[in-house]
């Protein structure tokens, strides 16, 4: 084995086998283990150092051995080393790709011109260059036909598909990342599990001031349609998250509850609307009307009349 494969192949191969094994057996989530855990990176570097050190030691030992051998022994040893794979085909392929005449044959292709002692070689164009050029011509033809003759997709189409994909990905992400909500984006959660979770949060954090049935105590009645700080999911979420007016006793719960939990408890609070608590606290604040929901209900005639009025005034 040692005689067959040169060390510049042996070290990387051994290293990548160990590297692969490490990545395979260590569960590091999406990132590779050596990125996730610095210790793994250190370990791999150490392995690499050790592998190189082993090669260096073996090389040194061989040299010492060579000095101790008699002539016949030396010859045998060197012959064995000769059998190392030399990868001549690699060199040959490279040579072919360049398409140059070897230096010995250059006299055949030297041009007659003599520019102040500088002569020119008439080498062929390197095949890698020529074939890349042909491929680019074929590519151009196909491209021209596809996009300019048969009107393939445009960059705008491409952008739109990408945007659509991104929108889908964003929706999917929002579903998994419920804690992304804030009072601008929150919507009423109607899922029974969410409302139940909200109820549990309410029982353990809020009943002291709002009562178990939401009838109110230190805090206002949450079952009526009067709100001090505004009703609707967005305002309720905001009140829970940011707290009430200072000195009133309603703290900002964002320090203790996660956004998803605040959305749950806010949704639960809204389910209390219209229920009849045992000891309802008198209504405080104003009747709250949603300004956003009845957008379509804004009478269009009213606006039109107004414009007409303006015109008639002029
Ligand atoms: C220490 C007592 C206390 C606790 C605990 C408390 N609140 Fe309050 N809450 C109040 C007070 C007082 C107000 C009125 C604030 C104001 O007037 O600015 C209030 C107001 C509110 C309002 C707005 C009512 C309105 O009319 O605008 C909501 C919604 C609310 N609380 C929900 C909750 C939720 C949900 C919890 C539990 C996570 C909770 N509160 C815990 C005392 C409390």
Automatic annotation (TrEMBL):
Q: Which Pfam families match?
A: Cytochrome_CBB3 (PF13442), FixP_N (PF14715)
Keyword Nucleotide-binding appears in the UniProt entry: no
Q: Write down the species.
A: Algibacter pectinivorans
Q: Which PANTHER family does the record associate with it? A: CBB3-TYPE CYTOCHROME C OXIDASE SUBUNIT FIXP (PTHR33751:SF1)
Q: Which domain of life is it from?
A: Bacteria
Residues forming the Cytochrome c domain are: 193-273
Q: What is this protein called?
A: Cytochrome c oxidase cbb3-type subunit 3
| InterPro entries linked to this entry | CcoP_N, CcoP_N_sf, Cyt_c-like_dom, Cyt_c-like_dom_sf, Cytochrome_c_Oxidase_Subunit
């Amino acid at each position: 084995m040692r005689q067959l494969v040169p060390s510049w192949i042996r070290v990387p191969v051994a290293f990548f086998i160990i590297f692969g094994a490490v990545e395979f057996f260590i569960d590091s989530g999406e990132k590779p283990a050596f990125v996730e855990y610095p210790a793994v990176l250190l370990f791999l570097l150490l392995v690499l150092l050790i592998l190189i050190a082993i090669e260096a030691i073996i090389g040194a030992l061989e040299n010492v051995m060579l000095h101790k051998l008699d002539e016949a022994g030396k010859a045998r040893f060197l012959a064995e080393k000769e059998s190392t794979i030399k990868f001549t085909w690699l060199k040959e392929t490279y040579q072919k790709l360049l398409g140059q005449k070897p230096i010995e044959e250059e006299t055949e292709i030297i041009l007659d011109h003599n520019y102040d002692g500088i002569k020119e070689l008439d080498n062929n164009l390197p095949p890698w260059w020529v074939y890349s050029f042909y491929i680019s011509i074929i590519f151009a033809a196909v491209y021209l036909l596809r996009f300019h003759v048969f009107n393939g997709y445009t960059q705008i189409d491409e952008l739109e598909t990408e945007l659509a994909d991104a929108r889908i990905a964003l929706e999917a992400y929002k579903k998994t990342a419920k804690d992304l909500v804030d009072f601008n984006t929150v919507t009423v959660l109607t899922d029974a599990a969410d409302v139940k979770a909200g109820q549990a949060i309410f029982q353990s954090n809020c009943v002291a001031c709002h009562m178990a049935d939401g009838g109110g105590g230190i805090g206002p009645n949450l079952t009526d349609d009067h709100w001090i700080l505004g009703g609707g999911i967005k305002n309720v979420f905001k009140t829970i998250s940011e707290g009430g007016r200072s000195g009133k006793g309603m703290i900002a719960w964002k320090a203790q509850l996660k956004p998803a939990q605040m959305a749950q408890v806010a949704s639960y609070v809204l389910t209390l609307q219209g229920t009849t608590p045992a000891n309802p606290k008198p209504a405080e604040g104003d009747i709250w009307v949603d300004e956003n929901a009845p957008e379509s209900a804004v009478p269009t005639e009213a606006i039109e009349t107004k414009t007409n009025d303006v015109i008639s005034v002029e």
